[in-house]
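QUALITY CONTROL LOG
STEP: pairwise intake check
CHECKER ROLE: data steward
CRITERIA: each record must contain a sequence immediately followed by its structure tokens, with no blank fields

ENTRY 1 OF 2
RESULT FIELD BELOW
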Amino acid sequence: MPGRSQPVEVPRGSDALFMLRRIRDEAHRFANTFHRELRGKRMTASSLDGIAGLGEARKKRLVQVMGGVNAVKKATLDDLKALSFLPDAVAEAVHAKFHTD
């Protein structure tokens, strides 16, 4: 309690303690549900999203051919341009997204 140095004693088995436990449990349930929603949204987003000319099909094929998103991030511009299914403009856009030199 604000302004008191001693804690409030709530007897075991009382209705007040039961209510405080229910409030605590509900707060934790709400926080865990919210965290799961955020984590779920974050796990469906890719760092390849938003690159012009790179749709779902090309993105899937690019990741498959390169061996993963991290490999795409590390790929050189020449590696990306060497892929026959990836136009040069899209290869340059992918490279520019991950290499800011």
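ENTRY 2 OF 2
RESULT FIELD BELOW
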Amino acid sequence: MTLSQTAIVVLAAGLGTRMKSRRPKVMHPLAGRPMIAHLIGTLRELDPNRIVVVIGPDMPDVAAAVAPWPVAVQQDRLGTGHAVLAAGDRLRDFAGDVLVVYGDTPLLTSATLRRMLEARHSPPYPAVVVLGFEPTEPGGYGRLIVGAGNSLEAIIEAKDASAEQLSIRLCNSGVMAIAGDRLFGLLDRLSNDNAKGEYYLTDIVSLARRDGLPCGFVIGDEQELIGINSRSELASAESFVQNGLRRRAMEGGATLTAPETVFFSWDTRLGRDVTVGPHVVFGPGVEVADDVDIRAFCHIEGATVAAGAQVGPFARLRPGARIGPAAHVGNFVEIKNASIEDGAKVNHLTYIGDARIGAKANIGAGTITCNYDGFFKAHTDIGAGAFIGSNSALVAPVTIGDGAIIGAGSAIARDVPADALVLTRGQHTVKAGWASAFRRRQRAAAAGADHEAVLTGEQDRQCERAVEPFERCLHYSSMA
């Protein structure tokens, strides 16, 4: 079946007052991106000729989120019919099919919308096709009034419905497919003579029937048609989306040892034979190649992980992290805007930012790259096969040559040649007997005794002279 051209009107002007948020309702995120962006992604699958997003005044962030598709501004929120009229300047010349969808219904699928378009082009060729559904709790949904031959006669809003009409279980989702050459002729005749004083889009069904035009409906899935108007409904939609993403990951060849604890972003990509442990969170922009082991309690965002790498447990990969093949990133390690090359190991309690770690280099526990001076970021380059001793501070910009060894506890602020050993520890000083002499003095002071009576012999007098400067340091430390 050949369908006509398609335009789509997205109604997104709602304030979302039940969200109790300064953010427009459709900008609240699902799986890491605004719900309006989810819907636009679905609509693109239809390859429409036009998309127009109807927004309220002062919603520049919504306009930016749907770009390059144009927006129309509904200055006064006078109902759904009034909202579609706001798109008139861009659509009155359009004679194809016009789909009307809602920005707060982001789980709608392109397959459902195609069924609606197919119904438009099937006998009796209805001028309006409505997407209906049978919710568990019909509540405040409008009811579809169906006549002989399964034709749609009208939609009655719940506030205007009689008790008998409220007993109908077939409800209106709000989504419609409409003949473009009929749409604005119907919209221009809408009245606001109803309980809410609004121009209902749903009234075009009864107007079309009055003109002798057939109308129809298709039935959709309730979960697909979840409308998000509150934080609790947003959480329910997030759960639905996450379950779908988990299924997709496992069907694609990944093992999730505790699926219900793993959270994905809409664009997370996992290769085959990837293992993901419990309580792992993927932010936007993550790609993981085959045979990667991601252990428990990791947070990964804006990062790539190459084949055979091992990450975690308790690791954080921030945007710009690039983990090479067979590399290891261990517990309590944070990587930001840095590449960890083939087989390199950063296994414990380490921060690597704005850096390159060469192939098979080994970074000791407690090492940090000092990449920020409060104004500018600087780069650290660590060569292949280098060994960085534990508790080292690498003060960028600095280069560590291939195969170099940095002694534990060093602060490195100058370049290190390849295969060199560098260490910057303080002098190792031993004061024999100092500790025991110090304790005797302190016990005597606590007892109010004369120090000289306690310290006897030449060794103690020598220790006393050694103790004095250290004792002052201890005293001032205790006063801090």
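INTAKE CHECK: passed for both entries
DESCRIPTIVE NOTE, ENTRY 2: The longest strand covers residues 171-179.
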